[in-house]
Amino acid sequence: MKNGLNEFLWIEELLPAGTESAPKHGGMAYYLDMKLIMILVENPESTYEHKGVTYPFQIWNGCILPVEYRKQNAFFLKFSFLENHPANKDWLYIPAESENFEDEVRQFVREITKRNPLLGTPVKFAGMPKPAKTPEDEIRKKASKVRKDAKKRENVFLMGMLNKTKK
Question: What is the pTM of this model?
């Protein structure tokens, strides 16, 4: 695969069969079972800053691991070397400048190979375009407001009746 990755090609070879790739975020994204499982970005001149905050690692030079935010604690307990990527809350990150980068990536690729259900974020497809609004839609919208008002009056009436019976 020609993807612009030079130093990280060995990672691509570790991924399980059936993994598909596509360019994304200046690197290469890998998909497995309709989930985005990894993004490799190789930019040695990458910045340490994102939205005015300086980080102790290069932002766009390493291995991005998409994991839904609410599932990330499980990975932090198992892999203490992971960082949160500042560009997206659903991304964990292994900076390329990490001392044990190769070993850390291999550990995480084992999780991918095991098909850990917590790993990856589902691929989102663009839905069908919404049809243009018609005058009939506006009439329906107005009618629903009237129904809500009528329902409120009905609820007030019923609550009044209920309070009378309690006395």
Answer: 0.64
In this structure, what token pair is assigned to residue 60? 């766009």
Q: What is the domain-level CATH number for residue 20?
A: 3.90.1150
Tens of pLDDT along 97-146? 888 888 888 888 888 888 888 888 888 766 556 666 666 666 666 655 55
In a domain, 100, yes or no: yes
In a domain, 133, yes or no: no
